[in-house]
What we know:
The longest helix has 15 residues, at 81-95. This protein has one domain (4-135, 216-283): 3-Layer(aba) Sandwich (Rossmann fold), CATH 3.40.50.1820. It has helices at 47-53, 81-95, 107-116, 137-146, 156-166, 175-183, 201-210, 242-248, 272-283; strands spanning 4-12, 15-24, 32-36, 58-62, 100-105, 123-129, 134-136, 152-153, 186-189, 192-195, 215-217, 229-234, 256-260. It is α/β, with parallel strands linked by helices. The protein is globular and about 50 Å long. The chain has nine helices and 13 strands.
Amino acid sequence: MNPQSDFVQCISPSGLHRMVYRQWGDPANPRVLVCVHGLTRSARDLDTLAQHLCDDYRVICPDVVGRGDSDWLRDPQYYTVPQYVSDMVTLLARLQAETVHWFGTSMGGLIGMGLASLPESPISKLVLNDVGPVLNGGALKRIADFVGTQMTFDSFVQAEQMVRTVSASFGPHSDAEWRQLTESVVRQKNGQWTFHYDPAIGLNARAQAASTPDTLEFWWGYDPITCPVLAVRGELSDLLSRDTHRQMGLRGPKAQLVEIPGVGHAPTFMHDDQIRLVRDFLLA
């Protein structure tokens, strides 16, 4: 099954922008699952997960503004979680979805937490993939040092090698899977390959990393959540510590905890055992 592509018009203080999303499954299915990618990734990261769940859900995978096929913001200072949450509320209104299940990797999980913590939130089940209310400052700096760096490659092979290098923490993948992960984030233009996101998304990331020497904590965005939560951690993650992961199971929504061995930040949920974790939790 191939997804349908559509867009919704959103607004920031700097003007209007389009957010593109991919839709899998029956568009009349009232059961909706929103899957949101990480900081520099795109909706295509979630293709495999969506394919496995679209018999049960209408699966919606947006390109967060500034990434993939969505517009770039006129003013990069609004590349922030509150803006992304606002865009998602607009998307849910377009979908006429009163309640949804949510899967979010890294940044996508932060957006899900932001929305789930609000009174009368539409999120009724939440999967947080290697992200939580305490983020390691060293990992934030590592990510910020890469984000926004303008790179061009003479061939797709060169681009794939870079993706394999910077994304080694995703864990073991087949050659076909690395090709898919590369196709998700690069585009060809004028005979060269580049990462397909606005380099300006790195401005806020670097500012945040510079002001976070040790850890960034925001339990106030986790403790109010009342829906069931599955908190997934990569065993080797440098962003989400084991201690924070443990605390997520003890406070707030008291998340169900799972740790995936041999993977850092962040599991890709392209493999059957990882997909099964999500399916079992969401459909329980």
